[in-house]
Amino acid sequence: MKNHPTPAIGKWFLDNADGQLFEIVAIDENDETIDIQYFDGAIEELDVDLWDEMELTSAAAPEDWSGPFDDLEADDMADPDTPTETSEFAQYIDKM
Question: Rounded to the nearest 5°, which phi and psi values hold at 89?
């Protein structure tokens, strides 16, 4: 029997089958499920049997945290301090 990594919240793994990097974000012992979040932000729920079948390698957390934001468009990255539309109230303040 091969030595299989034990899931623990906050640990990172590399799925050797597809090259995906993911983190354990939740473990439900009652339902026997493990929730993982891929580097790109996608979340998946695995059952314990599938976990045991996966070819995994323990991995370090990525230094580049931008994975979930790689698909943002320029419009998505607007300055949050810049109002998108002027309300009537703001128009009156500008006149003061």
Answer: -60, -45
- pLDDT for residue 78 is more than 80: no
Helix (H) or strand (E) run with residue 94 in it? helix 88-95
pLDDT for 40 equals: 86
Domains of the chain, CATH where assigned = 1-62 (2.30.30.30)
The string of pLDDT tens digits covering residues 53-75 is 999 999 998 886 665 555 555 55
Report how far residue 54's alpha carbon sits from residue 57's, in angstroms, rounded to the nearest whole number: 10
Q: Long-range contact list for 16-23, CB < 8 A, 24+ apart?
A: 16/55, 16/56, 16/57, 17/54, 17/55, 21/59, 21/62, 23/61
**Helix, strand and coil in the chain, % to nearest 5:** 20, 30, 50
